[in-house]
Amino acid sequence: MSPIMFGEHHFLPLVLINLLGLAGILIWHIQGRRRPTARLVVQILFFCCMSLVLWLAGISPYHFDYDELQDGGILLAKSARILWWLHLAWTMIGFLHIYLTLNRRPQEAHLLQDLIVGIVYLGVALSVIGFVFGAPVGPLIATSGIVVVIIGLALQNTLADVFSGIALALGHAYVIGDWIQLADGTEGRVVETNWRSTNLLSGGYNVVVLPNSVLAKQGVTNRSRPDESHQISLTIRISAIHKPRLVEEVMLAVLQGCERIVMNPPPVVALKTIDAIAIEVELFFRVASAAGRMSAQNEIIDLIYEHCRANGISLAMPAQSLVCPPIGEQKEQATLRAISSGAL
């Protein structure tokens, strides 16, 4: 009988599993992150080969045979099982990456992806500790739970941002590239989301960093859904000496002559009010994206000036700029109106 007492029928399979595991790690790193599909194929291939060798040799990754625990076989047995669990984790994470890539959501699901990857690695680490090294996992989990509670109390604000970010990612309130507006008026295009904050690129090309907990507490308006078009309203005051129909026709010509607005749905002219001073008109039009509001509004104002000048239409003074006569003159005018009405 051979002097190697850890089981000859397990020696070659354990060596082969170790070789396959190390070769898989080497090729996995050679592939690089730019080829996720090729890396997944390598991971699946080597994991299946290692699992097949385990099954054919009757080796369980969950417990040791007594033959393996003699002499130096323990090193081969433990390393083989560690490599098998490691390849299992990489295979699961590879499927996750491919799923997110095929669904074209690698950026918006970044937080959820990191969370799942962390859970996979934590599960594999506990499995290695329990099944490979035979350590009791229960007391370890209980001790780590106490540590987690202490850390959680010390990092309440940070954890609030983390869980708020996960909730926002699961709720699909917005994705990378969406233009959003908060209840306090802050708005911009989402350029990055991470565990703690969401970064917006404002119309002035400034990056606004918003904690995820702030976004979760405020109302968020997604101006990129159902499409990127954005409605704008502009109020104009026209002198009341002009006919309302003429004012409506001129304002409609202004909107139809603008090249920076969307014509479907068509823009609308609304005559809101009329008094002795002015006709108040509100223009409703849409732009292709929220980022084009300023240029479109500038063109509309320029066209209003040109069309009003060409048609002899004069603008009215703002309501708040009307000058009130002194109190003495007001009383005198009121007395004259009373006398006039009495005479009539």
From TrEMBL:
Membrane topology designation: Multi-pass membrane protein
Main location: membrane
Subcellular localization, as worded in the UniProt entry: Cell inner membrane; Cell membrane
Keyword check for Signal: no
Coiled-coil regions listed in the entry: none
InterPro entries referenced in this protein's UniProt entry, alphabetically: cNMP-bd_ion_channel (IPR016846), LSM_dom_sf (IPR010920), MS_channel_C (IPR049278), MscS_archaea/bacteria_type (IPR045275), MscS_beta-dom_sf (IPR023408), MscS_channel_2nd (IPR006685), MscS_channel_C_sf (IPR011066)
Residue stretches making up the Mechanosensitive ion channel MscS domain: 157-225
Superkingdom of this protein's organism: Bacteria
Record domain Mechanosensitive ion channel MscS C-terminal: where: 237-314
Pfam family name, one: MS_channel_3rd
Cell inner membrane recorded as keyword: yes
Residues annotated as transmembrane: 12-28, 40-62, 82-102, 114-134
Keywords: Cell inner membrane, Cell membrane, Ion channel, Ion transport, Membrane, Transmembrane, Transmembrane helix, Transport
Job of this protein: Mechanosensitive channel that participates in the regulation of osmotic pressure changes within the cell, opening in response to stretch forces in the membrane lipid bilayer, without the need for other proteins. Contributes to normal resistance to hypoosmotic shock. Forms an ion channel of 1.0 nanosiemens conductance with a slight preference for anions.
Subunit-structure text: Homoheptamer.
Family named by the database record: Belongs to the MscS (TC 1.A.23) family.
Official protein name in the record: Small-conductance mechanosensitive channel
